[in-house]
Design brief:
158 residues; DNA-binding; Arc Repressor Mutant, subunit A; 6% strand; two-stranded antiparallel ribbon; homodimer; elongated; 6 helices; 58% helix; mainly alpha
Chain lengths: 158, 158
DNA sequence: GAGAAATTGTCGTGTACGGTAACAATCACC
DNA sequence: GGTGATTGTTACCGTACACGACAATTTCTC
């Protein structure tokens, strides 16, 4: 295993390169919906359970409370989420999706599918299954919760 | 192919997640050498041909001239590269590695190898070959030059 | 129950970074 | 030999993140 392999033959480099590339492309595809991939991740998370506090959401996504404030400001201004009074804790907000969000989310998911399809062009279905399975096994070992992106910052791509 | 798959079952998401994760880990491994992955990429490129101008290097790596100024400032201050007078063009600089860089580079490469080994733990050699081959085929189609990271910014991770 | 400590959401403040424009020095063209 | 283009650099600006601080409210403790 020679140490001076070129970068293009290193699995970790290729992962970083491809991951950055596909994230940037996805960011572009999402742009005219008025949201970033970080908003998409939050919407996806909300679609699996509403009414949680900002703090709970921030912990689930592995980001700081303050960042959640900004994300929810964006979503609220965009008419995709709303802060309601929390029934049990008057300090906290309970976060809910709007109908507009439930309309937009399938569209955003379709764009994610389109990006994936674009990326995987050239691989047959058996190879796609192989790749997905291998990546899932690697992802298990990273320690990141499933479906939580470690780079949930404001501008993941571009 | 259902549209509302969870993120953990999407190849593009997994690539982005794993790519970000391994880049962040690599950044940490490189930290006590005093360089960032972007510096590493530039050093790797320089090791395959010295004496080029900053402009040529910037184009090869797909970044703006100004960013190259900053990267070379860092490398020069760190004693890893030097700007010499260009023999044919007195506006330009010819960029060379120092002996310190030639000593440091194998160390940095070994850290990249260690990060890769860490990432791929749990995959046997056949699976590693499969994964590498599939990723290389995907990388071909992205349009990025081989071994050039599209996210060559100052702080790729963390 | 009353005060102390912790929690929730928010707001400044400072700092660092990327991108645009501008600049002096030099080259290339014709 | 003079005009336009190119190289490397600096200045500027807008943005975004990290840290700390803050009021309102809850929970703990006695």
């Amino acid at each position: 295993m020679p140490e001076n392999r070129p970068l293009g033959e290193r699995t970790n480099f290729l992962l970083s390169q491809l991951g950055f590339h596909t994230a940037a492309r996805f960011t572009e595809r999402l742009a005219d919906l008025g949201i970033h991939p970080s908003h998409f991740g939050l919407l996806m998370h909300l679609s699996q359970g509403e009414g949680r506090t900002q703090q709970q959401l921030a912990e689930a996504l592995g980001i700081h409370r303050k960042v959640m404030v900004g994300l929810l400001d964006d979503l609220e201004q965009r008419g995709l989420a709303e802060r309601r009074r929390h029934p049990a804790d008057r300090r906290a907000h309970a976060i809910f999706l709007t109908d507009a969000a439930r309309t937009l989310l399938p569209d955003a998911q379709a764009r994610a599918d389109a990006e994936e399809e674009d990326l995987l062009t050239g691989l047959d279905s058996a190879e796609r299954r192989q790749l997905l399975g291998l990546l899932q096994r690697l992802a298990e070992r990273t320690g990141n919760p499933r479906g939580v992106h470690p780079g949930l910052r404001r501008h993941p791509g571009r």
